[in-house]
């Protein structure tokens, strides 16, 4: 993406999403920090809009360190999702440079400098996979100087060698239960839980809301490719789901998104699933990759969220910590 195209993205989102008061732009790749001219153009163009109109987040592997990187992250007040799977032997197994060099030490240096040089909020993000369990990933992330943690099973097609086998999946479900127990003890002690995976669903239960869709893809969420194609979500296949381009009149991709959303509701099999009111019908991008295995994890997450909500039925005010209020 060129700097001019990056500016066009911000302008197009600003005009096309005029019916929303705020717009969050999340950058990921690949590695977004490989294109600093485009990043600068996004931040500079967004600064032309009224304060608070745009906010930024980024998923990065933290291997590109320069004064300009930290200056831009601070200028955009980025929320940073830092990919760090675990200690060096775990992280470096799969996260290597194109020449095969290990990256863990560099990622840790990035984190230290990010903390020292910016006010950015940071999420530590780990991929759980064969041989690396959820509880271990969470323990590792909790030891890092981050605000929030996210450790999640790798999303692969069934049978992939990185995917969890039957026993590991059982263990993963048990670890989700333990993560729920940790949230309950944090809330009981008036602490904001570091693992926020259950928060949206617990707050949904607190508000008594039903989720009619998994997410706002096509209506309140859009993906924009480096070439400027607009998709309902950047994880969806470009050829099949393209809504238009940021170079088009905004009403055309906004209208196509609305049509896309109306034609992509929950699947028929969701109608008999007890998790539907909390799940909303599953991620349209991930269901096609992971299938039923994704549903097992979603159902478990929903049931743990229900357990947390139930635990505080007589003290619902405690749950407000999940919205960052203590
Ligand atoms: S868990 Fe699976 S089957 Fe159940 S509502 Fe969600 S996507 Fe549908």
Q: Would you write up a description of this structure?
A:
The protein is α/β, with parallel strands linked by helices and 326 residues long. The protein contains 13 helices and 8 strands. The strands form 2 sheets. Strands 1-2-3-4-5 form a 5-stranded parallel β-sheet, with helices on one face. Strands 6-7-8 form a 3-stranded antiparallel β-sheet, covered by helices on one side. Helix 7 packs parallel to helix 13. It is globular. The structure holds iron/sulfur cluster. Iron/sulfur cluster (SF4) binds next to helix 11 and helix 13.
* Shape descriptor: globular
Secondary structure tally, helices:
13
Mean pLDDT: 93
CATH topology of the domain at 1-153: TIM Barrel
According to CATH, the homologous superfamily of the domain at 1-153 is Aldolase class I
Please summarize the sheet with the most strands: 5 strands, parallel
Ligand list: iron/sulfur cluster
The radius of gyration computed from the alpha-carbon positions, rounded to a whole number of angstroms, is 20 Å
Order of helices and strands: HEHEHEHHEHEHHEEHEHHHH
Helix content: 40-55%
- What fraction of residues sit in β-strands? 5-15%
> In CATH terms, what is the architecture of the domain at 1-153?
Alpha-Beta Barrel
Counting DSSP E segments of at least 2 residues, the number of strands comes to 8
Q: In the CATH hierarchy, what is the class of the domain at 1-153?
A: Alpha Beta
First-last Cα distance: 42 Å
Low-pLDDT stretches are none
Task: Output the strand order for the largest sheet.
Answer: 1-2-3-4-5
């Amino acid at each position: 993406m060129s700097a001019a195209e990056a500016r066009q993205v911000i302008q197009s989102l600003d005009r096309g999403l005029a019916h929303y008061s705020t717009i969050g732009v999340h950058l990921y790749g690949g590695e977004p920090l490989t294109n600093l001219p485009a990043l600068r153009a996004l931040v500079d163009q967004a600064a032309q809009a009224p304060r608070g109109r745009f906010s930024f987040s980024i998923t990065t592997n933290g291997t590109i360190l320069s004064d300009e990187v930290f200056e831009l992250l601070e200028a955009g007040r980025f929320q940073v999702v830092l990919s760090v799977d675990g200690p060096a032997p775990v992280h470096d197994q799969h996260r290597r440079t194109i020449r095969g060099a290990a990256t863990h030490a560099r990622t840790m240096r990035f984190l230290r400098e990010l903390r020292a040089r910016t006010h950015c909020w940071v999420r530590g993000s780990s991929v759980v996979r064969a041989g690396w369990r959820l509880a271990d990933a969470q323990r590792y992330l909790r030891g890092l100087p981050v605000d929030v943690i996210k450790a999640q099973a790798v999303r692969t097609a069934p049978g992939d060698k990185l995917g969890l086998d039957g026993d590991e999946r059982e263990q993963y479900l048990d670890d989700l239960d333990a993560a729920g127990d940790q949230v309950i003890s944090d809330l009981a002690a008036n602490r904001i839980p570091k693992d926020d995976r259950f928060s949206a669903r617990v707050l949904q239960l607190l508000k008594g809301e039903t989720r009619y869709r998994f997410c706002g893809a096509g209506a309140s969420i859009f993906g924009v490719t480096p070439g400027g194609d607009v998709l309902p979500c950047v994880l969806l296949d470009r050829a099949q789901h393209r809504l238009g381009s940021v170079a088009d009149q905004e009403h055309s991709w906004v209208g196509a998104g609305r049509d896309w959303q109306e034609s992509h509701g929950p699947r028929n099999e969701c109608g008999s699933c007890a998790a539907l009111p909390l799940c909303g019908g599953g991620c349209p991008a991930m269901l096609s990759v992971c299938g039923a295995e994704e549903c097992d994890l979603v159902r478990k997450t929903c049931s743990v969220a229900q357990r947390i909500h139930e635990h505080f039925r007589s003290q619902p005010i405690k749950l407000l910590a999940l919205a960052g209020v203590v």
